[in-house]
Design goal:
The complex is a heterodimer.
Chain A lengths: L3 H12 L5 H10 L2 H4 L3 H13 L3 H4 L20 E2 L3 E11 L4 H12 L19 H7 L21 E7 L4 E6 L16 E5 L2 E3 L2 E4 L4 E5 L3 H9 L1 H14 L1
Parallel strand pairs in A: 4-7
Antiparallel strand pairs in A: 1-6, 2-3, 2-5, 3-4, 5-8, 6-7
Chain B lengths: L3 E6 L2 H12 L4 E5 L2 E12 L6 E8 L5 E5 L19 E5 L4 H12 L3 E5 L4 H17 L4 E4 L7 H9 L6 H30 L16 H17 L4 E11 L2 E7 L7 H14 L2 E13 L7 H12 L3 H13 L19 H6 L8 H11 L29 H17 L4 E12 L2 E12 L25 E2 L3 E8 L6 E2 H10 L8 H10 L3 E6 L6 E6 L1 H14 L12 H15 L4 H21 L1 H17 L1
Parallel strand pairs in B: 1-4, 1-7, 7-8
Antiparallel strand pairs in B: 2-3, 3-4, 5-6, 9-10, 9-15, 10-13, 11-12, 11-14, 12-13, 16-18, 17-18
Helix pairs in contact in B: 2-3, 3-5, 5-16, 5-17, 6-14, 8-9, 8-13, 9-12, 15-18, 16-17, 17-18
The chains are: A alpha+beta, B alpha+beta.
């Protein structure tokens, strides 16, 4: 029979995740006897799948080496570099390269069914611009107006994330360089990231392809309400801007 | 019987122009009874081939001869439920004021061997041609029917068209017939429904006809959509980083690759990391030849868009003026979607005709002396007309002020098409400063080429950049945060509205200006002047009624799966696409009429069922808002 240690070692070696003993025991005892006879690697795969859908505060080790330092938010610290691989889960993602208002307009276009093929409406026209010639002359300045594109997809970022470690510490992450997979439609709430020796500046974790591995996953109970409530949150924020 | 040929043009002025060219100016003019505009011009002309020299009667209609209407028992507004108009019998009859014209054609046909149709070569013209044919056949069942294919009224062109007749395009005529029937049924059904229902709601609407048109409403929809976007807009603050370097006595501004972000703390942190790096590194130095392309050959949509932008004329006026210039034989047919010149057309000869002009004659000469280039080809070809171009040179004192403007634009655009692109040298410098990238661009215009004649385009050298080398390090003179606020879009202008209609498939190039004029006339939109003096712009603002109708119809279909609001372009767009299918022969008129009626009938039923949505919207904007 496969021992919990074997599974834990497997998860550590393939995903660099230190799994919590309690969670693993619960996982093993919940799986049937039939499953217990299957090879350790297969069982480890199932465990990883469950892990990615879980809340890491319950499923991962809170050992000092795999959580964020508690003073990570200190804005007085100009720069520090964290050591090792720290798993975190995404609690929020925002596009800070695109205005809230144009994000709301993009959502409304989808609500009106204009993202459906054949139902798109062209709403802005560059008068006096020869479409072919401007392709030729245009600078690579696609977010110059801070507008999101017509399909309702987000702009080009960068994105600001709220990340949470196994101990429950939350921190803001900023996408300093474009990371594939970090986008409003692609990254689910509850998705897991592995931070590898990341830099932290003024309390913000600097995210780049070199310091982030996307493990994927999702916490359904968080993701669904987050998506449903997105427009309301954006609207609330724009109202806040007005009061300033 | 004499070998007589009856020629019929779409308008009296074209009849006269064609008669002048075919007869060499020697024709007799006869008035016709009952219409003071239409004349019969008589002369002889050698058509060559089997026909040889014939005596000709050249006459015209004045636009459409016939109209489509419901049978008498359905004409009264209370005669039937509005929904019945989707099926009610309709009849095509000659308009009362056109009866003398129809009589004239029937009479002339009696003595003629052949009918030669000279209506404008577009869809509408084919349909008018079919109306003329029907009258002629009623007068003389054995009359042979031909059609002249021409796109301007220049002498040689007209004579060639007379020698090479073609057949009437029945498909195009059917497409127009389908459109006329659909416009009648759908327009009348919705107009009656909404007028009768809304009259009872608001006192202000009591005496008013609230007309509906399947092009007007989406056109209004664009105006309302933009208006609401402006009204609802919320400004937001953004921040960015700018880097300045003073070198060789020049101040270079580097722009942030991220442009700006909506989070001050993040931008502050990013700037700090730039400053910590102390030195910036030049990562790219790109010097390359660049060009600004000469414009594409001129289409109707472009003429209207550019015209209302540069000539300060509204699109309807531009079309009227262009029509007059065409009728007088100065420019080619102004309704065309084609933005490519046919290989057969002798462009150089057309350029040479402009030699006498004081403003651009010299430029035309230089083109022929070696600077001539074959125009770019766009992607559109309506297979009927070439792009709009000047046919002959006209002395400015033969033109009124508006004609002068439009003619000048058409000529300059044509000469620009036959010129070389403007050439320049662009320099792009990219630097990395900390984690961030910035760039500076420089442009030196080396050869202006087409810009010399096409005064509407601007392309100018920027400040010159000092020298940079790839890999070099430097310490920026300044690096700062700047801030700003997003601004609301502007209200819709006429060129934008035309562009939106075109991009969304509403109306044809020929009818867009009419739809815009219609929604003004119906008081669904009003014109607002933005700014003053030469930079002032006319904007469209919807009236309360305009907003109410769009909101009402949007609410009617709210939450209904697969149903689209009448304020949106889709239904009309599909209808236009089906017209194209009739023209290409893949669908029949009957099929298209049935399919399109089915689509609109569905919305009609929803509207009837949820008429309260429309009433509520009207109450909201026309009663509550005006009193509060």
């Amino acid at each position: 029979m496969t021992s919990p240690d074997q599974i834990a070692a497997q998860i550590l070696s393939t995903k660099s995740l230190s799994v919590s003993q309690t969670w693993l025991n619960a996982f093993l005892s919940s799986s049937s006897t039939a499953q217990r006879n299957i090879p350790a690697s297969a069982l480890a795969k199932t465990a990883i799948f469950r892990l990615l859908a879980s809340d890491i505060r319950e499923s991962l080790s809170k050992h000092r080496s795999c959580v964020l330092p508690v003073d990570i938010h200190d804005p007085a610290v100009q720069e520090q570099r964290l050591q090792g691989a720290i798993p975190v889960q995404v609690l929020d993602i925002e596009d800070i390269g695109t205005s809230l208002w144009s994000q709301i307009e993009a959502i409304e276009r989808v609500e009106r069914g204009e993202a459906i093929r054949g139902r798109e409406i062209v709403r802005t026209i560059a008068v006096g611009e020869d479409p072919e010639a401007s392709e030729n002359n245009r600078a690579n300045n696609n977010s110059a107006n801070g507008t999101a594109n017509a399909s309702g997809n987000s702009g080009y970022g960068p994105h600001r994330l709220i990340l949470q470690d196994a101990a429950g510490t939350m921190v803001m992450g900023v996408e300093m360089q474009r990371i594939d997979g970090i986008a409003l439609e692609k990254l689910a709430i509850g998705a897991k990231l592995l931070l590898r020796n990341p830099s932290v500046a003024r309390g913000m974790v600097l995210l780049s392809p070199g310091s982030v591995t996307l493990l994927g996953g999702k916490i359904e109970a968080l993701d669904k309400p987050w998506r449903e409530g997105r427009k309301a949150r954006l609207l609330e924020k724009t109202a806040g801007v007005e009061r300033e | 019987m004499a070998r007589k040929i009856l020629c019929v043009a779409e308008k009296p002025a074209i009849a006269r122009a064609v008669a002048t060219h075919l007869s060499g100016g020697a024709f007799q003019t006869h008035a016709i009874r009952g219409n003071q505009y239409v004349k019969n011009y008589e002369f002889d002309f050698n058509f060559g081939g089997a026909w040889g020299t014939c005596s000709v009667t050249m006459t015209s209609v004045v636009g459409h001869l016939t109209g489509l209407d419901f049978d008498r028992e359905y004409k009264g507004w209370m005669s039937c439920p509005p929904g019945a108009l989707f099926e009610a019998p309709v009849q095509e009859t000659v308009d009362k004021d056109k009866l003398p014209i129809a009589d004239n054609i029937r009479n002339q046909a009696k003595y003629s061997k052949a009918l030669f149709i000279w209506t404008d070569c577009d869809r509408e013209g084919e349909h008018i041609g079919s109306e003329v044919r029907n009258q002629a056949k009623a007068g003389n069942a054995r009359i042979e029917v031909k059609r002249a294919k021409f796109s301007n009224t220049e002498s040689a062109h007209v004579r060639r068209a007379a020698l090479e007749p073609v057949n009437l395009d029945e498909y195009q005529a059917s497409a127009v017939a389908a459109r006329i029937e659909l416009d009648l049924r759908i327009g009348a059904a919705f107009t009656r429904l909404q007028t009768l229902q809304l009259q009872t709601v608001v006192a202000a609407l009591k005496e008013k006809v609230i007309s509906y048109g399947s092009c007007q409403f989406p056109t209004l929809g664009f105006v309302v959509d933009r208006y609401l976007r402006v009204q609802n807009f919320k400004p937001e603050s953004f921040w960015g980083i700018k880097v300045i370097l003073s070198r060789e006595g020049k101040k270079v501004n580097f722009l942030w690759k991220r442009v700006h972000l909506f989070d001050r703390a993040v931008v502050t942190m990013m700037l700090e990391r730039c400053l910590l790096a102390k030195q910036a590194k030049v990562t790219k130095v790109n010097q390359k030849p660049t060009s600004k392309w000469r414009p594409l050959p001129l289409t109707t949509v472009d003429l209207q868009m550019m015209g209302s932008r540069f000539l300060r004329l509204d699109s309807q006026t531009i079309m009227k003026v262009a029509e007059a210039l065409y009728t007088k034989g100065f420019i080619s047919y102004p309704r065309t979607e084609t933005d490519q010149f046919d290989k057969g057309i002798d462009l150089k000869k057309l350029v040479e005709k402009q030699y006498p002009d004081n403003s651009w004659g010299q430029y035309a000469r230089e083109l022929i002396d070696g600077k001539f280039r074959t125009p770019r080809s766009g992607r559109h070809n309506d297979k009927a007309h070439p792009p709009i171009h000047p046919v002959i040179w006209v002395s400015p004192n033969q033109l009124n002020a508006n004609e002068k403007k439009v003619y000048e634009f058409v000529v300059r655009r044509f000469l620009a098409c036959c010129s070389d692109d403007a050439k320049g040298q662009s320099t792009d410098i990219e630097i990395q400063y900390g984690d961030e990238f910035f760039h500076a661009n420089g442009l030196i215009v080396l050869e202006r080429n087409y810009l010399d004649v096409y005064v509407y385009d601007k392309w100018e050298s920027s400040q010159q950049l000092p020298n940079f080398e790839r890999g070099e390090l430097f310490e920026p003179t300044e690096a700062n945060i700047f801030d700003g606020k997003t601004t609301a879009p502007n209200y819709l202008t006429e060129p934008e509205l035309i562009g939106l209609m075109d991009a969304n498939g509403i109306g044809t190039d020929a009818t867009m200006a009419e739809h815009i004029a219609k929604i003004k006339e119906r008081e669904y939109v009003a014109i607002n002047q933005r700014g003053g003096g030469r930079s002032s712009v006319q904007e469209f603002i919807p009236t309360r009624l305009g907003v109410a109708l769009v909101e009402g119809y949007d609410n009617v279909v709210e939450g209904l799966p697969n149903s689209v609001s009448l304020s949106k372009p889709f239904l009309r767009k599909e209808m236009e696409l089906r017209m194209v299918e009739i023209c290409s022969g893949t669908k029949t008129r009957q099929e298209v009429v049935q399919q399109s009626l089915d689509m609109y009938r569905e919305v009609f039923i929803h509207t009837q069922r949820r008429i309260n949505m429309l009433k509520t919207a009207c109450r909201k904007y026309l009663v509550e808002e005006t009193t509060s």
